[in-house]
Amino acid sequence: MGHACVDACYVLLYCSGDPTAYGNLPLAKEVSSAVISAVEGSSGDGYCLSFGREDACKAVAETHSTETTPVTTKDVVLASGCSGALDLAIGVLANAGDNILIPCSGFSLNRCLAGANRIDARAYRLIPERGWEIDLENMESLIDQRTKAIIVNNPSNPCGSVFSFEHQKAIAEVAYRHRIPIISDEVYEGMVFSGIKYHSMAEAAPDQPVLTCGGLAKRYLVPGWRLGWVILNDKHHHLDNVRDGIRRLSTQILGPCSLIQAALPDILRNTPKEFFDNTIDHCERAANIAYGLLSKVTSLTPIMPRGAMYMMIGINTEQLEGISSDINFTEKLMAEESVFCLPAECFEFPNYFRIVLSVPLPMMEEACTRIEEFCRRHQVAPTAIAATAPNGSSH
Questions:
Q1: How far apart are CA 220 and CA 278, in angstroms?
Q2: Is 387 helix (H, G, I), strand (E, B) or coil?
Q3: What distance in Å separates the CA atoms of residue 175 and residue 168, rounded to the nearest whole number?
Q4: Rounded distance, CA 387 to CA 139, Å?
């Protein structure tokens, strides 16, 4: 039954957040040329300062500075990917016994990084019915005297959400009332679908301390190069001690790859807009395919993303025979249809699963067709659904 007998090479890997995994999104030639030039010029062969080469930090500052949120070279610390940047930001703001606020559903590494330093990670709710906006009342209820940071991820992994400027201002107002810095995970910066406007958190909160974490991984399609950064947006100098502290913390690994640092100025300045447009156009087309097909499945509720590389789909387990949870759903989907998705339990949001939009479009269509067949095969008869509904009414 299903596609369980399909050869392993035809398993549809619908779960990996690595945009290079499928070979369908080419690297910009300007990006590879920058690295080749750095190799041939031997400019990245030696050690660098742990917080980054000056020319590389300057390039990050120049490409992220605006009139309302100016960034200087001294505001930038380079890291081993955006994950390394988040590690530095969390580590410099909180100590053992403190707490930070993290999104739920959200990037699972946030809790791991906090736990490694004995920092309590308190998860605030996102609201899928409102495009995964933050439940601000719930978020504020988690704050106490030992809350040292609020992590915000926009655009979002795993949700594919993109916050409006007004919602980001509302987030900043909560942080401002409690005098808490924001750690803004913006590794998907600018990756928004047509008609959607992207704003950084620093733009929405120009007077609020914001540690912006980003990197090359997703936007430039080079996650293996491990080059990220922290930008200290703090024009009122509330975090001058943090600036020194984060540089000290960077000495733990002596900085990211020197070669990629040497190439970074050319990568940031020369990569054409068309390259980014092609990537996001592909993801938007994939999202439209998935949403169109999975919306027809009565037991599923896809939430249309607004950017990034992901979509979350809700599962009504009461309508599916033999399915008790998102983990159970994804295990059986893999066994019967050879489609591998991530259960959202990974992101602390049960009864959803995440799909990746960077896959080739034919794979997207085939995978959604298999998911539809799987759900139809497990669909509970309408009479059985009615029998389990309150007062005998149907859902």
A1: 11
A2: helix
A3: 11
A4: 38
Provide the residue type at 127 as one letter: I
Closest by CA to 204, choosing from 176, 237, 166, 230, is: 166
3-state SS assignment for residue 369: helix
Distance of alpha carbon 395 from alpha carbon 385, whole angstroms: 7
Q: Distance between CA 245 and CA 249 in Å, rounded?
A: 6
Sheet of 210-215: strand order equals 76-79, 228-233, 210-215, 182-185, 147-153, 99-104, 120-127, 133-134
Q: Which positions ≥6 away from 8 have C-beta within 8 Å?
A: none
- Alpha-carbon gap, residue 177 to 197, rounded angstroms: 27
Distance of CA 41 to the CA centre of its chain: 34
For tokens 């120049």, what's the residue? 62
Spatial neighbors of 137 by CB under 8 A, at least 6 apart, are none
The reported pTM is 0.93
Looking at the DSSP assignment, which residues form a beta bridge with residue 192? 307
CA distance 88 to 346: 23
Instruction: State how far the Cα of 359 lies from the Cα of 16, in Å rounded to an integer.
Output: 9
C-alpha to C-alpha distance for 296 and 278, rounded to whole angstroms: 28
Helices 273-294 and 361-378 cross at an angle (nearest 10°) of 20
Q: How far apart are CA 191 and CA 275, in angstroms?
A: 12
Q: For tokens 């020197």, what's the residue? A: 258
Burial of 41 (0-12, 13-18, 19+ CB in 10 A): exposed
- Coil, helix or strand at residue 110: helix
Q: Can the peptide bond before residue 70 be classed as cis, meaning omega within 30 degrees of 0?
A: no
pLDDT on residue 309: 96
- Cα(286)–Cα(363) distance, rounded to whole angstroms? 10
Element (H, E) at 57: helix 54-64
Query: What are the residues whose beta carbons fall under 8 Å from the beta carbon of 116, sequence distance 6 or more?
Result: none
Averages of pLDDT over runs of 10 residues in the chain (395 residues) are: 45 76 94 97 92 97 94 97 97 98 94 96 97 98 98 97 98 97 98 97 94 98 97 92 95 93 98 97 98 97 98 97 96 94 94 96 95 96 57 38
CA dist 170 → 173, 199, 211, 252 (Å): 5, 14, 17, 36
